[in-house]
Amino acid sequence: xxxxxxxxxxxxxxxxxxxxxxxxxxxxxxxxxxxxxxxxxxxxxxxxxxxxxxxxxxxxxxxxxxxxxxxxxxxxxxxxxxxxxxxxxxxxxxxxxxxxxxxxxxxxxxxxxxxxxxxxxxxxxxxxxxxxxxxxxxxxxxxxxxxxxxxxxxxxxxxxxxxxxxxxxxxxxxxxxxxxxxxxxxxxxxxxxxxxxxxxxxxxxxxxxxxxxxxxxxxxxxxxxxxxxxxxxxxxxxxxxxxxxxxxxxxxxxxxxxxxxxxxxxxxxxxxxxxxxxxxxxxxxxxxxxxxxxxxxxxxxxxxxxxxxxxxxxxxxxxxxxxxxxxxxxxxxxxxxxxxxxxxxxxxxxxxxxxxxxxxxxxxxxxxxxxxxxxxxxxxxxxxxxxxxxxxxxx
Length: 395
Ligand code: GLA
What we know:
Blueprint lengths: L3 H9 L5 E10 L11 E2 L1 E14 L4 E6 L4 E6 L9 H15 L12 H8 L2 E8 L9 H16 L6 H16 L6 H8 L4 E6 L5 E5 L5 E7 L7 H22 L11 H7 L2 H26 L2 H18 L5 H10 L5 E6 L7 E7 H19 L4 E5 L6 E3 L1
Parallel strand pairs: 4-6
Antiparallel strand pairs: 1-3, 1-13, 2-7, 3-6, 4-5, 7-8, 9-11, 9-12, 10-11
Helix pairs in contact: 2-4, 2-5, 4-5, 4-6, 5-6, 7-9, 8-9, 9-10, 11-12
Alpha-D-galactopyranose binds next to helix 6.
């Protein structure tokens, strides 16, 4: 396949001004905690969205999805969500550049009128990538971050990486309709080679943790399920947590966020589904804090055990798993060569993340593929991942 720069030149008869690569992400532990003021532990991976970009002069945006063979042209002004989803990830961040203040990205001091003047002439953009779509590896966040990073460089907009993460998150809310947390965009923009990042989703402070797996590898098993309910159920979980928080706050005035809630308070105030959701969140927030202590001590056995606990909580209490994800986790649960496994990301499909002994990886892939195929009548895909740097310019 031709490099993206040449494809851009062929398409637009113009050399791209720059090329940007933005990675997908894994999350070691801390699921559905980002929008609940908890902690997450993601890392950027060796799968990317690439964009090549160049300026125009006629106030239009020409967008080409190379992998899909689709081209869409829109005027840069008064952008609104479109029927073609990949387009929304691009124009959603353009809208943010124009309206970042209005959209409550509070920390952004940039002069939006000035940005509007800079961007108003439009741009050409080509997109391609190798992040499997709908596999829970955040291809959409990677696209948003790649476009925003490219615009930031091209037009000298001076947004910080954290500001861009917040803007990409707001773009996803407004243009894709998913009320996601900040983890995916944060991880894509802040990734560092061989490091996971503990993000405090309340203060947005973050710490890098070296990941030295030595005899182990991170392997993702892809269910190949792209659940249609994923985004609507995701938004429902978010609402259920907000409801639970509100009920607890009515009784305990000192509680500001999920970070202040104890299991006793959950037990005392909540029932049924809301109880289950909030119990999981409170437990998971505590679990991540213990898991990073395991990491710091190099105790990967203890870390892996917590991954299995997270899966149990996501499956039984938070109810965002599916039979295929449960099957893949259960199938490796008693394997001495697997330190930990759990469903990863929003849920209802996508991948499990597994920490597997190098010498056993091949054999486990083979056995699990056969079992999965037999039980679910589906092909199992897998990705042996490495942890890489975040969004960057390509020379
Ligand atoms: C999706 C969202 C993230 C996060 C995870 C669950 O990936 O985009 O913000 O909430 O689900 O942890």
